[in-house]
């Protein structure tokens, strides 16, 4: 490659994740993944809302996309908590379907991104987008099931306690049985906490494990648990560096995007005049999106005066502006996604080197590629052998054409 990359094989390599996140192939995959996730959520929410299974509407999701992180994150957490905590069967089913759909999307997209990051960091090799997607497609079920294995474990031990509680409904015998076997229920509760907590901490290593090792979901889970428990201090240290550096990079990218939008709207507004200010006010009162980057912080008093657009062309202009802002936000989220997956892949390499003493350059290469390389080497060896034999014949008896003359 023309550009030299500084790799130290220690925690300082985490800073390379910023550069790796701007790989055009990763940006493309991350953008498609986020866009597909949003479309899936909006379509699923619209469908289940029409069936009256949930009270959330697609308009709520659209407003959350447009609002700022400071305003949107508390609302998202509140909605998710209110949907999960009551354990309503309909809402819980819809929530599960949404999670499975998102997991299916990111099993393909995330697998391809981590595969590109693995080959880039370990071998300084630029893999083709098609090859990365083929690899993710072959390992799709490994990517899909790896985050679900800890969840299945937690549900298994929870089911054991539920069955024990059902036994306790039996008069006298059931009560005595549950009382004597309650220590087992406590052990089951401890295992639920242990599997759940370590699973959440090691979740970030599951996709990189499959992309680097070419293994299955069980190996991804076992390595994730092993690396977290074997080197907890190093794991926490790398995660802290990754988080702080990632937040600084994300703040910089978000500031650049905000400044771009701010300057663009300011300069266009200078030329367009009051008409553009009216469009801004119309967007603000319809969508309450103060984070667009062009809305003033002192616009609270302007909300009392209703603004209307008298022509359809102005409404079209306002709608197009909202779409442009959404695309810019998706780009910022895409950077956050590609950075996170790239950084976690680097941390996986570092922990594997420390714990398993495995060289960083050791990456799983598909057998088809190996066989293709072997075929090429064999063909080249045969061609070199033929050329050498021709040279020897020429030395001994001259050229074949001369020897064939009568």
Kindly state the percentage of residues in helix: over 70%
Rg over alpha carbons: 29 Å
Shape: globular
Largest beta sheet, briefly? none
How many helical elements? 17
Number of strands: 0
Helix and strand run: HHHHHHHHHHHHHHHHH
Compute the average pLDDT.
80
Distance between the termini: 56 Å
* Alpha-beta classification: mainly alpha
Poorly predicted regions:
292-304, 371-379, 399-406
Strand coverage percent: under 5%
Can you describe this structure in just a few lines?
With 406 residues, the chain is mostly helical. 77% of the residues lie in helices and 0% in strands. Helix 5 (89-123) crosses helix 6, helix 8 crosses helix 9 and helix 14 crosses helix 15 (312-356).
What does this structure look like?
This protein has a domain at 242-356. Helix content is 77%, strand content 0%. The protein is built from 17 helices and no strands. It has helices spanning 17-20, 24-50, 58-66, 69-84, 89-123, 129-138, 140-145, 148-167, 173-180, 182-202, 206-213, 217-230, 232-272, 274-287, 312-356, 367-397, 400-403. With 406 residues, the chain is mostly helical.
Characteristics of this structure?
disordered C terminus; 0% strand; mainly alpha; globular
Strand and helix map with partners:
Layout: H1 17-20, H2 24-50, H3 58-66, H4 69-84, H5 89-123, H6 129-138, H7 140-145, H8 148-167, H9 173-180, H10 182-202, H11 206-213, H12 217-230, H13 232-272, H14 274-287, H15 312-356, H16 367-397, H17 400-403
């Amino acid at each position: 490659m023309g550009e030299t990359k500084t790799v130290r094989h220690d925690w300082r390599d985490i800073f390379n994740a910023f550069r790796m996140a701007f790989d055009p192939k990763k940006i493309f995959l991350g953008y498609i993944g986020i866009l597909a996730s949003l479309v899936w959520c909006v379509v699923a929410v619209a469908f289940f809302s029409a069936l009256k299974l949930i009270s959330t509407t697609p308009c709520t999701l659209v407003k959350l996309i447009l609002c700022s992180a400071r305003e949107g994150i508390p609302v998202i957490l509140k909605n998710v908590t209110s949907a999960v905590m009551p354990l309503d069967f309909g809402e819980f089913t819809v929530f599960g379907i949404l999670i499975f759909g998102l997991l299916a999307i990111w099993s393909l997209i995330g697998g391809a991104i981590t595969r590109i990051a693995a080959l880039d960091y370990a071998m300084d090799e630029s893999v083709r987008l098609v090859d990365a997607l083929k690899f993710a497609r072959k390992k799709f079920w490994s990517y899909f099931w790896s985050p679900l294995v800890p969840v299945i474990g937690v549900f298994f031990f929870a089911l054991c306690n539920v069955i024990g509680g059902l036994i306790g409904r039996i008069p006298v015998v059931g009560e005595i049985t549950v009382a004597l076997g309650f220590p087992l229920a406590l052990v089951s509760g401890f295992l639920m906490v242990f599997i759940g907590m370590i699973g959440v901490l090691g979740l970030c290593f599951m996709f990189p494990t499959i992309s680097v090792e070419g293994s299955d979901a069980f190996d991804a889970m076992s390595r994730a648990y092993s690396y977290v428990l074997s080197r907890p201090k190093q794991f926490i240290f790398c995660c802290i560096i990754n988080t702080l550096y990632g937040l600084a990079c994300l703040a910089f990218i978000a500031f650049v995007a905000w400044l771009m939008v701010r300057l663009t709207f300011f300069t266009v507004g200078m030329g367009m005049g009051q008409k553009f200010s009216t469009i801004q006010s119309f967007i603000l009162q319809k969508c309450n999106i103060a984070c667009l980057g062009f809305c003033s912080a002192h616009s609270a008093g302007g909300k009392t005066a209703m603004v209307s657009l008298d022509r359809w062309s102005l409404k079209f202009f306002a709608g197009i502006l909202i779409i442009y802002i959404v695309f810019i936000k998706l780009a910022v989220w895409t950077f956050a996604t590609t950075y996170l997956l790239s950084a976690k892949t680097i941390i996986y390499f570092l922990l594997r080197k420390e714990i398993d003493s495995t060289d960083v350059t050791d990456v799983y290469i598909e057998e088809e590629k190996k066989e293709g390389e072997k075929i090429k080497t064999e063909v080249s060896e045969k061609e070199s052998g033929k050329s050498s034999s021709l040279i020897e014949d020429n030395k001994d008896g001259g050229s074949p054409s001369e020897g064939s003359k009568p």
